[in-house]
Design goal:
Largest interface: A-B, 55 and 42 residues
CATH class of the largest domain in chain B: Mainly Alpha
Number of helices of chain A: 9
Order of helices and strands of chain B: HHHHHHHHHHH
CATH architecture of the largest domain in chain B: Orthogonal Bundle
Number of strands of chain A: 9
Shape of chain A: globular
Strand content of chain A: 15-25%
Oligomer: heterodimer
Strand content of chain B: under 5%
Number of strands of chain B: 0
Strand order of the largest sheet of chain A: 5-6-7-3-8-9
Number of helices of chain B: 11
Distance between the termini of chain A: 7 Å
CATH class of the largest domain in chain A: Alpha Beta
Helix content of chain A: 25-40%
Largest sheet of chain A: 6 strands, mixed
CATH topology of the largest domain in chain B: MetI-like fold
Structural class of chain A: alpha/beta
Number of domains of chain A: 2
Helix content of chain B: over 70%
Chain lengths: 275, 297
């Protein structure tokens, strides 16, 4: 373990800190191997240990192919781990897929709206899947669309909305479910800088106000440091190389050093003075 | 009072102007009207200079068309042909869509069914007519079999392609919301709307194909239907009858095409090109969110 990763300079969080009993999400020694069409075995995750406390926003940052998306999909329960355990509120998201209904929701990169549904119907999709009555789900969807500044655009189809508006509908769909855990997959990376900044701010305010737990995946160091209470830096093959707490940086120069440290860890560069 | 009257008059003018504009939009383009008029004039001139069995006068054809739709016996022929076309197409649509979706989901099923569908599609319609005549004694079964054989592959391939074109991201998104009735909900909200445009296209293509096939089948061996009537008219060299029966089929195809277009307009209004302006981020209302307190720096 390097000095950097022990974090004298950058105020890191030890893995044990996140392993308290009230952890909402936990990865314990998780390995995931994919077998490609030609029989090649690809190690996507290798000994991933990570946990997220209730009410915490964890940002995961890493280069392309470092296993972020695999960890994300494991958390969603879209497939199971090869070995190790993944738990969400103590349940296996893959095996106990049904039990976690309505407790996890995702804000995807591009909103991922169904093009044949209006903004209102897209926002109500999760509720519809949960069997909520039409009148009730429409009311909730409209309420969230209004909170996100889309009043009057309820009947618009995705092609009639700008990128930012589509993303707002995606956020409304997520919050309409009232989940405990919100996952974000590069949620604002497809937007222009100003829109992304504005929407990110609003999103974080909602997450905090509603007391949600969040896992925010991004490839942007700046975004990770802005969003996360804690930042986990992933390195291939899928493991946490270091963790940082941006709030511990008290000045711009400290933050700047942290930014550089994250970059170095991502790139696998040992910092000067490291062991 | 006079101001009020003037205002009302102006408003009335505006309403009237809008009505005229709307009506004008519904009218066919001038070029089209001119082209049709020229065609009819040429027809009249040629008909006046030739025998009726080559090209009869428009009036004779017109009265025969009216007769087809008003005479009960002849109407029965017309309706029978429509019924055969629709029965064949609906069967092919149901079976073909189910087969195509199954193939879209399973590579193994694709490997099993693909050769059969490709061979079926490669066999000419006329060969199917011969096969149907030899295999089946009942005329209705022959025609139904023929229709299914000729149009099934089109529906199946279209359903398979449309299913495979559904972005995996959308399926993942839906799955991440953990649908209560997993397969049914996914089919209802993702698969069905995603394959609809392709299936409507398949209907349009197969409608023309099916109409031709039924006509051939009726011509070859039926005792009722438009194809049978065409054979009779041809035997007696009654060109007005040939044109009138053909026109009845064209009218039928046009009506069904209009129905499909109507469904398209209603069901596919979510697609770009509906003449609705895109909204830019700049035109949005200012956000109500507080500035991000955790903004770095």
């Amino acid at each position: 373990m390097t000095d950097l990763m022990q974090g004298r300079e950058v105020a890191p969080v030890s893995h044990d800190a996140g392993r308290s009993d009230d952890a909402a999400v936990r990865f314990e020694d998780v390995h995931k191997v994919f077998v490609t069409g030609d029989g090649t075995r690809v190690r996507a995750l290798e000994g991933l240990n990570l946990s997220v406390a209730r009410g915490e926003m964890l940002a995961i940052v890493g280069q392309t192919g470092c296993g972020k998306s695999t960890a994300f999909n494991l958390l969603l329960g879209l497939f199971g781990a090869t070995s190790g355990t993944v738990t969400v509120h103590g349940m296996d998201p893959h095996r106990d897929f049904e039990a976690l209904k309505g407790r996890i929701a995702v804000v995807f990169q591009d909103g991922r709206l169904l093009p044949w549904r209006t903004a209102e119907d897209n926002a109500a999709l999760g509720l519809e899947y949960q069997g909520v009555r039409k009148a009730e789900r429409t009311r909730i969807a409209r309420e969230w669309l209004a909170r996100l500044g889309l009043e009057g655009r309820e009947k618009a189809y995705p092609f009639e909305l700008s990128g930012g508006m589509r993303q707002r509908v995606g956020i409304a769909r997520c919050f309409a479910l009232n989940p405990d855990i919100i996952l974000c997959d590069e949620s604002f990376s497809a937007l222009d800088e100003l829109t992304a900044e504005r929407l990110r701010g609003e999103f974080l305010r909602l997450v905090k106000n509603e007391g949600k737990t969040g896992v925010f995946i991004t490839h942007s160091i700046e975004e990770a440091l802005t969003v996360g209470d804690r930042v986990a830096v992933f390195r291939a093959p899928g493991h946490v190389a270091a963790e940082f707490t941006p709030e511990a940086a008290l000045s711009e120069s400290e933050l700047s050093r942290m930014r550089k440290s994250v970059r170095d860890v991502m790139a696998g560069v040992e910092s000067p003075g490291s062991a | 009072m006079s101001k009020l009257a003037t205002g009302l008059a102006r408003r009335g003018d505006e309403v009237w102007r809008q009505r005229v504009q709307r009506s004008a939009r519904r009218l066919p383009p001038v070029e089209m009207v001119v082209a049709i008029c020229v065609g009819l004039i040429v027809w009249t001139i040629v008909a006046a200079r030739t025998e009726d069995y080559i090209l009869p006068p428009i009036t004779d054809v017109g009265s025969r068309i009216v007769e087809l739709f008003t005479d009960a016996d002849q109407r029965w022929d017309w309706l029978m042909t429509m019924f055969r076309i629709m029965l064949g197409l609906i069967t092919s649509f149901v079976v073909g869509t189910a087969l195509g979706l199954a193939m879209g989901r399973s590579r193994r099923l694709t490997n099993i069914f693909m050769p059969y569908l490709q061979i079926t599609q490669g066999i000419p319609s006329l060969s199917w007519v011969m096969i149907a005549i030899i295999w089946f004694q009942t005329v209705e079964v022959r025609i139904w079999f023929l229709m299914v054989m000729v149009t099934l592959a089109g529906f199946a391939f279209q359903a398979q392609d449309s299913y495979r074109a559904i972005p995996a991201e959308l399926k993942d998104m839906a799955k991440s919301l953990r649908p209560r009735r997993d397969r049914l909900d996914m089919f209802r909200t993702i698969t069905l709307p995603a394959i609809l445009p392709g299936m409507l296209t398949a209907w349009k293509v197969n409608l023309g194909l099916g109409t031709r096939v039924v006509l051939i089948a009726e011509f070859a061996g039926a005792t009722i239907g438009v194809g049978y009537q065409l054979r009779l008219e041809q035997q007696f060299f009654r060109m007005d009858g040939v044109i009138a029966w053909t026109a009845s089929l064209v009218i039928f195809v046009l009506i069904i095409q209009q129905v499909i277009a109507m469904i398209e307009r209603r069901m596919l209004r979510y697609r770009p090109g509906a003449h609705m302006p895109q909204v830019s981020e700049a035109t949005q209302e200012p956000l109500t969110a507080q500035p991000d307190a955790r903004q770095v720096g």
